[in-house]
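Example record used in the benchmark description.
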Amino acid sequence: MQDLKQILQSRINELNTSSLKEKNTINEESIKTLFKYLSLNNELLPLAQELLENSPRTKIVWLHLCECTGCSESVLRSGMPSYDELIFDFFSLEYHETLMIANGTKAEECLENVLNSNEEFILAVEGGVADGFFYTIGLHGESGRKILNRLAKKASIIFAVGSCASYGGIQAARPNPTRNCGIDEILTQNVVKIPGCPPSDVNIIATFFYYILFKQAPTLDSQNRPLWAYGKCLHDMCERKAKFESGIFAKEFGDEFAKQGACLFKLGCKGPYTYNNCPKIKFNSKTSWPVAAGRGCMACSQKDFWDDFGCYEAPMINKLAYKKITHSEKLLFENKNSNLNELDLNSDEIALYLKEKTQILYKENGENKEFLDFEFESNLKLVLQNLAKTKLGALLVENYKKEFSKNYDFIQENFDETPALSSDIWTFFESNFILAKGEFLYRKSFFIDCAKNYSFTHASPYDFKLNINEKAKLDINKAFRCPLIYLCGGLELSGLAFSAIKAFAKSVNDISKHFNDKKLVLCLDDDINSSFLHSLFSPLNLSKDSF
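Model output (structure tokens):
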């Protein structure tokens, strides 16, 4: 906070000694509202007010490329600050093809005036970039790509407003005949992404507001999205989450379950895969948002949502996938297929042992040391009893029993009351298989094949809790909720298998970072030594996912 305070104070001091000082009227309530959204300390309010009331309005060039103008429509519906406040008090809108009075050559003059001046300006781009002649603008028939590059070279900061500018948009969907893409794919400058179709007015305006105060972008995530807006999973803030945790899903839009707040996952809601603040910010002056209105989230702020998440009105099941995922056939790690007591490790190796037990080992003082410490209850009959001890858990088990009575009966008949603690991750994977199919897993490679055949790149992570201290402690007891929930929500075995293996792989990857001076080797039986399994344990592969 001190750094931000120093920035504001420094800017005010600089302004007081310059000839650029102006007198503006700024609504204090609007600033307070934006501070609240950005979680800024109220101690900075007087400084922000003083700065904005005395500094020239920041110029904005709003460029339209391949889009539908939905992002502009979103900003027009701003409540606090209102749109007229934005363009008369906070910003100076120098160019906006939809809203400006000038047209034709006069509009082009406005753009040239900005480019020829030495004054700083924000470049806000709405829309993706098409290839060549598919998108040309103005008297001289310049391509959108060329105009974008000219403006980007002089802009003080560049914002990709909406999913089209951020990732290419619907027009980039397969087969993408115009080779549409997000603006950062053709620019060398850094681009701050504000995705959504459209994003809320708050996410757009508050991010701009942060820049005009501090002359820098807010803290960004790995995809260059503002953390304050896109740092949390939308699902975790959803008002229907308790129903999701209970396995209560609407079966049709508008049915009694939906009206009573049932989860919409079975009807295609992609909330568990989406990072955005829609439940908190909402739309149209905080009136509502899609899930509250009875329509599922379609993950519109996620990259390639139009291809990667399948049908908008069904869960992510293979037959409804818009594209098939292909996997590399390359083996990435060495496989030391030997028993635990015969494993010979080098000093620069850590080993993931996946045979009769699961372990991570490294060599110290000439001996193999075990680093992974976990144990879980694998008796599914007892697992269901333990889950049913809480109110939400009891509802979940009851709904699973109704939806999958055959599988539930199989568990009751084939498991007794004897606890069965396990430290073998394959036992957990088999438990997922039993819950989904009502039979025992006859070979490990079949579970891997199920995961490999899953047609999506995204998976909502299981509840694997990992703590690394002297040993890595992996708690997967809570993860048993996940297959029950997703089964009730319509996900198939392939989705469960992919999610379970991917969640474990992420934990292994996190542990590997603890040994950043050592390379990973695997200890697998030959029949499960697949390139797909190798790829899941690759740090490069995991970094591309949305965990």
